[in-house]
Amino acid sequence: MPKLRGEAFWRETLRSAHYVVAPMVDQSELAWRLLSRRHGAQLCYTPMLHAQVFLRDANYRRENLYGEACPEDRPLIVPFCANDPEVFVQAALLAQDYCDAIDLNLGCPQMIAKRGHYGAFLQEEWDLLQRMILLANEKLSVPITCKIRVFPDIDKTVKYAQMLEKAGCQLLTVHGRTKEQKGPLAGVASWEHIQAVRKAVNIPVFANGNIQCLSDVEECIRKTGVHGVMSAEGNLHNPALFEGRNPLVWEMAEEYLEIVRKYPCPLSYVRAHLFKLWHHTLQVHQQLREELAKVKTLEGIVDVNRELKLRCQEEIANQKEGEKPKEGLPFFHWICQPYIRPGPKERCRENGDSGTEKGVRGKRALEEEEDGNSELLSKNKQKKKLRNPNKSFDPSLKPKYAKCDQCGNPKGNKCVFNMCRGCCKKRAFKETADCPGHGLLFKTKYEKSLSWQHNQRGIQTPEISQTGDTEVGETAVLKEAGDN
């Protein structure tokens, strides 16, 4: 059966999904996806996966996709970050049986994406993106989709989207912010850009940005004409967003924790979700915020959640008639509701700064420092500096690692092939060679094995690279050497 494309793919495979949960690192795991689906989400993405790691590491595949297979978790899209067509497609081939589409993530704006050269930092490399999508569209049995950020210029954004469509993209998610708009500088997403893309392409389009409640979803669809709307932070603070409800926080937290019991995930994921759900309450009960940060077990998290529930119920019991929410919140703090990220000026005031450049740039210090434009240090580096005052973070003093000729990872300093250990092992095995630098002695072990056979059987040692029975024997010897 030929794979569906464009509108047919959205309508039949994705079941005309309008409400979409975004891919979120360490936050859109199976348990959270199932919770979101129970409360109105019609389509979910897994967290973004690293194509090269997914291809080479069986444990990574099991932990991030294979071990999470669940019939209830469909339709499902798996996003990859990648910058090599072959690596991307080979990784996608390993994932396609576990999902309904493969997404090429071109929207990640974080520093790790800049260092790894993927995500939004590929948006100027149109030739590379065309080759990646063309190859994926040709080789995969499921459709290829893309998630992008916009350029400041609407016309360039439209041409970008049309290029991706022409290359074979079957669905496009447009985040209406540029790659520079993130963290405290996120600002408002441009629905104007999204609307222009929707009018210019003939494939389904999802919108991402400015979604805090169901009315935002409805307004976005009305103004932009998109097929569906994706939510990230809005969903994290209120997983019932797509139902149009604002439930009690402890109801969502308890339901999520029950799902986690059935579908376990790292404790750090669970803790992060409760920090989001209880965000406004934890501003009031600071002591429990610290306890939630320190707790080491799932049962400990359940206990903190129970204590937060009891304190909120006590507040409700003592509430005076006509009392209104504090801190300008639309609801009382124990009700799921949006969190509006403060801009640079607000963040300065929160941190006790006067609005100077230093206050504005504190969050972005690491990025600017790496670009050589600032002497400021990130919070993590400031902590390291306190532990070791002599430590230097000058990029010019960092050791430069030579890269493996084969894969780009750091090569072994004494490798005879100028490769990393993994690539060196494959080549040394294939060529029956030694690499003392990596402790790989295929040739030496092979020669010792032949010598041992000669002594045992009293026959003449066969030469390397013979055919017939000798070749079969050599293969067994090589395998034995490789296993050792």
From TrEMBL:
InterPro entries: Aldolase_TIM (IPR013785), DUS-like_FMN-bd (IPR035587), tRNA_hU_synthase_CS (IPR018517)
Biased composition, class Basic and acidic residues, residue ranges: 346-366
Intracellular or extracellular location(s): Cytoplasm; Nucleus
Annotated segments matching region Disordered: 346-394
Domain of life: Eukaryota
Listed Pfam families: DUF702 (PF05142), Dus (PF01207)
UniProt catalytic activity: 5,6-dihydrouridine(16) in tRNA + NAD(+) = uridine(16) in tRNA + NADH + H(+); 5,6-dihydrouridine(17) in tRNA + NADP(+) = uridine(17) in tRNA + NADPH + H(+); 5,6-dihydrouridine(16) in tRNA + NADP(+) = uridine(16) in tRNA + NADPH + H(+); 5,6-dihydrouridine(17) in tRNA + NAD(+) = uridine(17) in tRNA + NADH + H(+)
Cellular component, GO annotation: cytoplasm; nucleus
All residue ranges annotated as the DUS-like FMN-binding domain in the record: 21-311
GO terms of molecular function: flavin adenine dinucleotide binding; tRNA dihydrouridine synthase activity
Role noted for this protein: Catalyzes the synthesis of dihydrouridine, a modified base found in the D-loop of most tRNAs. Specifically modifies U16 and U17 in cytoplasmic tRNAs. Affects the level of some mature tRNA and thereby the total cellular translation.
Family of this protein: Belongs to the Dus family. Dus1 subfamily.
Database matches in PANTHER family: TRNA-DIHYDROURIDINE SYNTHASE (PTHR11082), TRNA-DIHYDROURIDINE(16_17) SYNTHASE [NAD(P)(+)]-LIKE (PTHR11082:SF5)
Protein known as: tRNA-dihydrouridine(16/17) synthase [NAD(P)(+)]-like
UniProt source species: Erpornis zantholeuca
